Amino acid sequence: MSVLAAEDFLSKEERQQVSAAIGAAEYRTSGEIRVHLEDHIEDEVMDHAAFIFEELGMHRTRDRNGVLIYLSVVDRKIAVISDAGINERVPDDFWNDVLALLKSHLAAGRRVEALTEAVQMVGEKLRDFFPLKRDDTDELSNEISFGGR
Ligand code: CA
Ligand code: CA
Fold first, then answer.
1. β pairing state of 145-147 and 32-38
2. C-alpha 109 – ligand 2 centre gap (Å)
3. How do strand 77-82 and strand 32-38 relate by DSSP bridges?
4. Distance CA 124, CA 149 (A)
5. How far is the CA of 36 from the centre of ligand 1 (A)?
6. How many angstroms separate the most distant Cα atoms in the chain?
7. Ligand 2 centre from 1 Cα, in Å?
8. How far does residue 46's CA lie from ligand 1's centre (Å)?
C-alpha cells in the first residue's frame, strides 16, 4: 500500500501551472503568495500552517502581505494563513470562501484547479489592497514548497 506523498500530489506540469498562477497573481499585486504541500501532520492544521509560514520566512515581506495556502495531502487538511498587513484589511469571510473553493475542488479530485483558482482568488483580493508598486520585487519564491517527511 502506498501512501500519497506531497511530491506526488501534482505532476511536474501541474506544479508549473500553480507557479505560473502565482506569478500571474503577483504581476498585479505587491502581495506574495506561496503554496506548501505536506504528506501528513499530527498537529492542528492552523497551528501547523502558522509554523510553516514562519519557517518559510513569510512574515518578512516589506508590507506584511504574504499569504500561505497550506495542504496536507494525506489528511486533506487545508489552511490559508495571511500576514498582519492583510488581516487588518480583509474580512474573515473571505478566507472561508477560499477554503470552500479549495474543498469543493479537492473533493472532486480537481487538484490543480483547487490550487490555481485559490491563488487567483487570493491574488484578486490582494490587488484591491496592495496594488503592484513600481519597485516591486519577488520577495518569496513562486515555486511550491514541500515538507513533512
Ligand atoms: Ca512582490
Ligand atoms: Ca512570489
1. parallel
2. 26
3. unpaired
4. 33
5. 18
6. 52
7. 36
8. 24
- pLDDT at residue 121 is higher than 60: yes
Altogether, the residues listed in the chain come to a count of 149
Residue 24: nearest ligand to its CA? Answer: 2
Strands (DSSP E) found in the chain: 32-38, 66-72, 77-82, 145-147
Task: Give φ, ψ of 77 to 5 degrees.
Answer: -100, 130
Q: Looking at 5-91, list the stretches that DSSP marks H as alpha helix, in order from N- to C-terminal side.
A: 12-26, 45-55, 84-87
Q: Could you read off the pLDDT of 58-88 as tens digits, one per residue?
A: 999 999 999 999 999 998 999 999 999 999 9
pTM above 0.70, yes or no: yes
**Cα 144 from chain centre:** 9
- Which CB contacts under 8 angstroms, 24+ apart, belong to 104-108? 106/71, 106/76, 106/78
**Ligand 2 centroid vs 116 CA: distance in angstroms?**
14
Q: Report helix, strand or coil for 96.
A: helix
Ligand 2 midpoint to CA 14 (Å): 17
Find all residues with CB under 8 Å of 140, minimum gap 6, and list them: 32, 34, 56, 57, 58, 61, 66
